# Entry
Amino acid sequence: MDNCLFCKIIAGEIPSSKVYEDDEILAFKDINPMAPVHILIIPKVHIDGADKLNENNTDVVSKIFAVAAKLAEEFKLENGFRIVTNVGCDGGQTVRHLHFHLLGGKKLNTELC
Ligand code: 5GP
Ligand code: ZN
# Structure
């Protein structure tokens, strides 16, 4: 999609530090890490956010969670980790392309909001 930062990263128009890629999914390091491990996992197809998921486009979400588990093992998050997706203005979503934050490598703040 035009003017979508993460679509530009997928297209290689903006560089990123990739940690996983397949036909449907890309994972790369967050530019502003909030934890020792902070990876963004995104579908290559543009979906605005979790509010735009439906029965026709959720298959990729289960695949994203499988990739998250694989990356957690690779990055040695054996003590645990967190997966977060922000939605819309109140949810704090700044990039309107569905993405899941994989956070770990330290004891995370337990406050959800
Ligand atoms: P959100 O706030 O939408 O849930 O998360 C967007 C995330 O994208 C933020 O954590 C932010 O640091 C990250 N981000 C924004 N621009 C870039 C970029 O150009 N490259 C990378 N790797 N991450 C970015
Ligand atoms: Zn996009």
